[in-house]
Amino acid sequence: MKRNRLGASELMVGEIGLGCMSLGTDRQHAISMIHGALERGVNFLDTADLYDEGLNEEIVGSAIQGRNRGEIIIATKVGNRRIPGKEGWVWDASKAYILSAVKESLRRLRTDYIDLYQLHGGTLEDPIDETIEAFEQLKREGVIRYYGISSIRPNVIREYTNRSSIISVMSQYSLLDRRPEEEVLPWLAEHSISMIARGPVAKGILSNRGRRLQENYLDYTGESISSLFPKLLDSANVNGRNLSQLAIRYVLSNPAVAVTIPGASSLEQLLENIAVAEAPPLRDEEIILLQKLTRSNRYEQHR
User: Fold this and answer.
1) What pLDDT score was predicted for residue 268?
2) Which pLDDT does position 240 carry in this prediction?
């Protein structure tokens, strides 16, 4: 599998990673999925303390035991704090909380360090300097190697780019969500920061099975997606790819994208995603055609 440098860091990530959120709560099943991914060249595992109230981190921690830790890049996230005895969570980007939460993530992941620690959201109203101080302190202490943010907000992404040493931004990006192309991807490329692209198959819509075709997705109605679907299928089939491969390859065609993290809840989905590594990159004319078929969405908020 091709590996790309994540930002200006020393982390070399396989272009297809594993988004662990969709693995579920069956430990045996989830661990076998992670092992299957690692054995097929995946080296980037993305989780978060929020997923299944920490259970997802625990599963990842169990799955990596007995393996060469130096060959696995673990990314997790912080910022969503659960209050004992209450449902839901509150947003907390304070330095005190980040320094506390990382200890629990390390415990659940059963590791001494986190390769990439990400702020799981963020707004301009956050104590941004304080948040950055927390990540920088953890870097100095060797608790984390690098940090980034998970955000779709251009204004927040610009602030962290200008004021911190983030190496990556995780954002939703697909043929049905091309918003990052407007200003985020060019901005990241200019600042040598990589995008970690989540949602490349748009909740399964961009797969040969075409799940949830009748549902709305961003500014697409179910009707417009149903009309677009056969055109995308034809484009994929003409070039010997399936639709998932076409969709993921489109996301990876942008030079600012270092890794994409399609989720998988079954071995079939996992193998289909990883097979993209063997599919040839899109040609320029294919990219142009796909951009003509789909919409150049725009961010209407948080500009």
Assistant:
1) 85
2) 78
Nearest Cα to Cα of residue 149 among 165, 168, 123: 168
Task: Supply the residues annotated as catalytic.
Answer: 51
**Cα(69)–Cα(89) distance, integer angstroms:** 31
pLDDT for 266: 86
Residue 71's Cα: distance from chain center in Å?
A: 19
Taking a C-beta distance cutoff of 8 angstroms, is the pair 195, 188 a contact? yes
Residue 98: phi and psi, rounded to 5, are -60, -45
- DSSP letter, residue 177: B
For 204-271, the three-class secondary structure string (H helix, E strand, C coil) is: HCCCCCCCCCCCCECCECHHHHHHHHHHHHHHHHHCCCCHHHHHHHHHHCCCCEEEEECECCCHHHHH
Closest CA to 157 of 130, 183, 131: 183
Q: Give the dihedral sign, CA 25/29/33/39.
A: positive
β-pair type (144-150, 80-81): unpaired
User: How much is the pLDDT for 188?
Assistant: 98
Asked if 25 contacts 31 with a C-beta cutoff of 8 angstroms, the reply is no
Cα gap 172→156, rounded to integer Å: 15
The first and second tokens of residue 285, run together, are 């004319």
Strands 168-172 and 80-81: unpaired
Task: Quote the pLDDT of residue 52.
Answer: 84
Which of 8, 43, 61 lies closest to 277, judged by CA? Answer: 43
Question: What pLDDT, on a 0 to 100 scale, did the predictor assign at position 212?
Answer: 67
- pLDDT mean values, one per 10 residues, the chain (303 residues): 96 96 93 95 95 91 96 96 79 95 97 97 94 98 98 95 97 96 96 97 81 80 91 85 92 97 87 88 94 90 73
Ordered DSSP codes for 101-151: HHHHHHHHHT-S-EEEEEE----TTS-HHHHHHHHHHHHHHTSEEEEEEE-
